[in-house]
Specification:
Layout lengths: L3 H17 L3 E6 L1 H8 L3 E9 L2 E12 L2 E6 L4 H4 L11 E10 L4 E13 L19 E5 L3 E9 L1
Antiparallel strand pairs: 1-8, 2-3, 2-5, 3-4, 4-7, 5-6, 6-7, 6-8
């Protein structure tokens, strides 16, 4: 560029080109924001390596004292596949919750990883209600060890 005027015109064109390229942006979420997003409870997905291979199952959940809690049935996949049979040895699983607004093409996703525990009678919160029919007497808790999240926003 030969002079200041050429440089100014080039920078102005570059600025307009950047504005034209605006679209969705992926942003990382802090763990605190992730927990705030999932705090109301709702539907999430539990992912784990079962005896028959990888499993991803939807559950309705609640957040209690920083942990994710849901109910399922005794004798089901999350009962048998998530017990080590060894005292103090836990399976680590993943739990995912998301919200997508297809009209605006925006949304968020939260992933929690941590050990899973079957809760004894005295540790079961009373307000965790399953949507699925049938007996759901097994209470399961995930204690987050890793919390990550992403949000897609339009610029």
């Amino acid at each position: 560029m030969s002079n200041t005027g050429d440089l100014a015109r080039h920078l102005a064109r570059s600025e307009h080109a950047a504005e034209d390229r605006r679209g969705p942006e992926l942003r990382q979420l802090a763990p605190e924001e992730c927990m705030r997003l999932i705090a109301p409870g709702g539907i999430g997905r539990v992912a784990f390596a079962g005896f028959g291979g990888p499993m991803v199952l939807p559950v309705n959940y609640e957040v209690h004292n920083g942990a994710v809690i849901f109910r399922t049935r005794n004798g089901g996949a999350m009962d048998e596949d998530l017990r080590t049979g060894l005292e103090g040895v836990d399976f680590k699983i993943a739990f995912e919750v998301d919200h997508v607004d297809e009209a605006t093409r925006q949304g968020w996703s939260v992933l929690i990883r941590g050990p899973v525990h079957h809760l004894p009678q005295g540790e079961r919160p009373s307000d965790v209600e399953p949507w699925a029919g049938g007996e759901r007497d097994l209470y399961v808790r995930i204690r987050p060890q890793e919390i990550t999240g992403r949000r897609i926003v339009m610029l």
